[in-house]
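Hi R.,

Here's the chain you asked about this morning:
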Amino acid sequence: MEITYLVEEDIIKEKPKKENKLVGILMMPLVIFYLESATRFFCFGFSVNKSFVFILLFSLSFGLLLSSVIMLFKKRNFVIGLLLLLLILFYGFNIVYHSIFHSFFSWSTLFMATDITDFYREAIAGVIDALPKIITILIPLVLFLLFKKKVRLFESFSKKHLLVFVAAFLSATLTLSLITLIDNNKKQLLALQLDYSEVVKSFGLAIANIEEGRELIFGAPKIEVKNPYDVIITLSNQSDVTLDIDRLIFYNTLNIDFDKLIKNAPNDTIKKMHEYFSLNPASDKNDFTGYFAGKNLIFLTLEGFSSEVIIPELMPTLYKMATEGFVFTNSYSGQWGGSTASGEYANLTGNFYTSASCLRKSASTNTYSAMGNMFKRSGYNTYAFHNWYGTYYDRDSSHPNFGYKYKAYKMGLNLKYYWPTSDYEMATITIDDYLNSNKPFHVYYLTLSGHTNYTWGGNNMAARHRNEVQNIGITNENVKAIIACNMEVENMLTYLVEKLDAAGKLEDTVFAMNCDHYPYGLPDAALAELYGLEAKDIRANIELYKNQFILWCASMEKPIVVDTPVAAYDIVPTLANLFGLEYESKVITGTDVFSSKENIAIINTLTGSGGNWNWKTIQGTYYSVTRKFVKSDNCTLEDDEIEGYVASVNNRVNAMRKYSMDILDYNYYSYLFDSNGKPRYSKE
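And here is the predicted structure, written out as C-alpha cells:
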C-alpha cells in the first residue's frame, strides 16, 4: 500500500517594516513653520534674520504640543485634517486681510464693526488678489489627504508620547527664555506697543495673536522706560512765566500742582506718570498765540487722503487752501496700527495709540485733550458729522465724549446710500446745524468718499467724477480713480466756502484738515506714480507718509510757510495755541509747532518693513531699522554731537510712546482734571 505523506509547507511571514513615526510627530511643526514662512514671504518679502529663530522655535513647540494632543484621539486622521483646515483658514484670512489693508487683523476689533465684514467689496477684491497665495498655503492639506495612510503617531500615554509633550514644553521654555534676553525695544514690540504688523514680522503671526489674546485677558505687561527729563531738576516746579534776557516767556499751562499729585498718587504707575509729565517741558506762548482767537473752526479728517491728489485745475478750492494758508512742508502721518480709528484719534486728541480700540476706550475715559472738549470749554458750540454708520468703531460713544453733538449715517443724517457715501451731500444737509450759531462754532467732519477701493466699480464717487479726470496726463487707472473720488472733498469744501461767504462768516472761519492715513488701498505701482517714488519697497519709504496738514483762513493776507517737522498728534496743541485756548501743554503728547520746544515727528510705516519709531526733527531724520541718522539742511549739530543727540531723542520717543498709550489705558486725565477740565490740584 502506497502511503502519501502530505508535507505542510512552512508559511514564512514577512517581518513588518519598522514604522518611522518621527515623520508623523514632526508633521505639525513643519506645517506651522511652512505657514508662518509663507505668510512672512507674502506680506514682507524674502529675508532671513533672527526672527526666523523665534518662528522656528515656536513652530516646533506648538507643533509638538498639537501632535501630543492628537495622540489622545482614536480618529487621528480626522483630527489632523480638521487642525490643518483651521490653521489654513487662520493664516489665509490674515493673508487676505493684509492684501486689503496692508496690516493684520487684530482681535481687539472683533466686537467692533470690522473692515473685512462691513466692506464686502474690498473683501472680494482681497480674496481675488490673494488667490495664488491661498492656493500655496493649501499644499500641506493636499499632501496630507494624499498620504494620510502613511502618517503614524505613538500610542496614547506611552513613554514616547510623554517625551513628545516634554519636548514641546522644553522648546516653549527655550523660546520664552530667548525672548527675555532681547533688548528693551523688542520687549515693547512684543507688548504690542508698536504697529501690530511689526510684531508679526519680528515674532510670527501666531505669537502675535497669542500675545494679543493674553493682553486682552490679563492686560499689557508694564514696560519701564527711562524718564528723559529726570536730570532737569529745576523743571519740576516750572513757573507759568520765565524771565528771558530779552523777554518774558509765558507758557501754555494751568498751574497744576504736580508735587501734590505725586504725593497722593494711588499707585506706582500713576506716580511715575505724574513724575514724567511734571518734568515734560511746557510749550511757550509765542507770536502765533491767539492768531485765530474767536474765529470758527471746521476740522476735517479726510479718509485715505493724500495731498498729492490735488490738481489745481480740478480742485481750485483745495489748492487755494493748501497754498495760501499755513503751508506745512514737513508734515507726516505715520501709521499707528489701527487704520482710520488711530489716525482719527491722533488728529482729535494730540495723543496716539496703536490699535483701533482707542475710540472704544475713549468712550469711558476723561478726554481732556480732545479738540471738541477744548473748544467747548472755551464757549464754542461743537458738532461732529460722519457719513457712515455711527456705531462703527463705537464713534457714537467716543465722539460725544470728545465734546461733540454727534450725527452719522442713519443717526440723524439721512444720506442716499452709495459705496462710499457722498462728502458733498453730507455738507449740504449739515451746514444749517451750525451756520447760524449764536456762538462761535467748531465743526468736525470725518469724510468717506476717499475710501478704497480705487477703481471705477469699487468706489461710486470715483465713478461719479470719472469723466473729469480723463485728460489730466495720468495713465494709471487707480490713480485717476483716487483723484476722481476726492473731487467730492473739493465739492464739499467749495460748497461750505460759498455758504459761509453768503452768510458773512467766511473770513471768521478757519479750515483745517488732515488725513487719517495714506491711501494704502492703492497698488504699489499706483502709489509710485502718485507720489513720484520708486515702487520697490515703497511702503517702507518714509516719504510715502508725508501728507500735508492743511490750515487756511480767508482773512490771511499771505501764506506762512512752516518747515518744522509735524505729526498728526501736533495738530491739537498747535490749534489750541492759534485759537488762544487755555490748556495744559505738559500732558499732551504733541507739541505746538510754533513754540520753541523741539518737535519730534514720529513716522511709523504701515507694514513694518520700513521700521517703526523712525523720527524727524529740525536737525534730521532717524531710521530705526538701520539706526542711521541723516542730517537735514538746517542741522546745527557737530559730528561729535550726533550720537548723543540721537540717544537723547530716542529716549524721548520711548517715553512718548509709553505715556501716550498710558494716558488712555489708565484714564490718566481723570487724575488731573474734573469733568469740566479744571485741575484737581492747583499751586497756591
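One quick note: Confidence is low (pLDDT under 50) at residues 5-18, 232-237.

Cheers,
M.
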